[in-house]
Predict the 3D structure of the following.
Amino acid sequence: MVEISTSLLSVEPENSIKTMYDLEVAHTDYFHIDVMDGIFVENNTSEKMFTYTNQIKQISNIPIDVHFMVENIQEYIEQYLPYEPNRITFHFEACKSKEQVLENISKIKENGIKVGISIKPNTNIKEIYEFLPLVHMVLIMTVEPGKGGQKLIPETLEKISKLNQYRSENNLEFDIQADGGINLDTIEQVKKAGVDIVVVGNGIIKTDDYAETIRLLKQK
């Protein structure tokens, strides 16, 4: 059964605390925090996501799953460390060298936080193979990062399948997470490809019954 990481990207600020409470009651496994800097991707959600993270820490014990879509990764790591997220994921494409990738992995892990590495739909999965023994999770973007409400790109499912096969063949233990366009219509395809955790935003937030939606996403 997959775990559900609910993205708060489309949550309106005036409803944020009630929505977080309702999601906790509905048994989401994680709150997914989409941090965008307006440089690596077009949108800038830095202030909104920082506020939401602060709110979560005050009202909930649900683990925080942070996804950086930013260029200055080290700066954002420092900003989020005090909130003790369960996991921090950064983009491979935001790193200018292998050394920078390794620095980010080390910085996150030395603070007792699980580390994830993410790739965009057009990045070859082989680009990150050498880092897989060092990370806790790989996030496969199933849409172009930067905004919610997009449709899942079918070709990304093959990438998940290849990663799942590589993990098995090499006895590696990282989780596979998928993010983008995942809802009740697409969840079965994503599960079949081999994911462990799915990020769902509008597919939960835009429904009338969070608990029922999360239950169905896990069961399908």
Notes: Helices lie at 16-25, 46-59, 73-80, 98-109, 155-169, 187-193, 202-205, 210-219. The chain is about 35% helix and 20% strand. The domain at 3-219 is CATH 3.20.20.70 (TIM Barrel).
